[in-house]
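Fold this sequence, please.
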Amino acid sequence: MKQEFKRIFDGIAGKRLLIILVAGILSFGGSWLVAYYRGVPVPHIHDEFSYLLAGDTFAHDRLTNPTHPMWRHFETFHELMQPTYMSKYPPGQGLFLALGQIIYGQPIYGVWLSAACMCMAICWMLYGWISPRWALVGGMVGVLQFGIFTYWSQSYWGGAVGALGGALVFGALPRIFRYQRMRDALWLGVGIAVLVNSRPFEGILLGIPLGIMVLPWKIKWESVKTCKFIKKIGLPFGLILLLTIITTGTYNKALTGNALIFPHVLYDKTYSTVPYFAFEPLRKTTQYNNRIYEAYEKKKYLHKRSWGGFVEQLKNDMEKIFKFFLGFPLAVPAVVIVLVKFLCKQWIWPLIITIGIIAGTCAAVSYPANVHYYAPFTCLVILLITYGLRYLVALLPRFRIGMIMVVSLMIFQLSLNIRVPQGFSPAQVFSLGRIIQSSEIRPTFIFTRQVLKDFLLSKKGKHLVVIKYLPKHDVLREWVFNDADIDHSPIVWARDMGTAKNAELLEYFKDRQVWYVEVFWDMKLNA
């Protein structure tokens, strides 16, 4: 019975292309089902709106948008207004959102597509490192842990695209050393291109453990002729790298006017006084059109500069990373593989150094680290877990006991993911507003941004919503975000800048119904 089960399971796992496709289908279908029962995710975070702007721009066949004449009323977080109007972020996430918007009519389908591609790439990567049997197990772990229930697939914040790039890089690596095939070099180049256009800084960090694993690789390079290596590996990889440099430079030039200046660099010079690393001093004060930018991130930066704040933030960041990437059930096989490999003195140092890089980055950045910063390392986490599950089976005296424990851990982890959603519920309240000038809504009517948006979309005509923030408003609860084509949007969200400047705005949008809204932050309702 035991041998028959192994034979059937190995037969299924041996169908690599089918298993890889199944991983993607499970991720996409599972994400759709979660949204069907929980509701389509509603953007709340600054970054989500910025990515949605990029997706909307690409969906309209443009790399960027011209600066609007009233741009000062539309200035907001993580978006450039000059010399062009566009998201500051690399285009990777925006391209997937554009695909969802073009093909299905909603950007969220692009998020699910990116999660499905991530799961397929992780499964493909595992087939290059371990036996088909355990590649199948690890692929399913990746789907259940990252592909359905996390905010990587249930928000617009990103993460899956960076994980996709990392999986392509680490999946191509063993195949290149084993077979020296052109297609694997192409996949390596594509993986690096994805990282450059999603998580460029973290992609550089990924190269450090990558080099550590390459250097001790036991391969007889003398058996590979130089001309063959150049033809099969060097040329295709170099071609993809050259295309990446050209397209990235073209994109930068379209947005910033200079191929060497990235959009996020220009944004930081324009709006941010907080440096990227906590050990750097504050930048020179910027002349703001809207004073709301001044407090953003500065308080957290100053807190982290103190020893107490540094230790507290590092502890919080590491807890977030542990809960997201592992959790208690999956930590068991991770600990097993570390102990076993430490005793065998193999592979432990690359893992320790990789973890050190992650911890060091958490400690160095000026602001709290989000888990999608470390998305390129996701495939290594899955590889670590899969090795641990395999050793659990090998270390236990009987096959059935080991398999029962492995299945139990996976079911336990799945139940935690289902019971504790890691995305954002559409009903979650982030900030509240009230109409202060309108003949159609009573002044006592309290609503969220999404409720107001849905109400206005249900009405005929075009609308201009002028947002005024009360003194104690939380800068993280922003309402002023717009589509790529502002003038033709059904709703335009603008910042209140006083009577004189507002008059220019009202004259420009004189064909729209105007709504004046006060936004406030109710700590009791959001506690």
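Strands lie at 65-66, 79-80, 84-87, 432-437, 446-447, 463-469, 491-495, 513-520. The longest helix spans residues 226-256.
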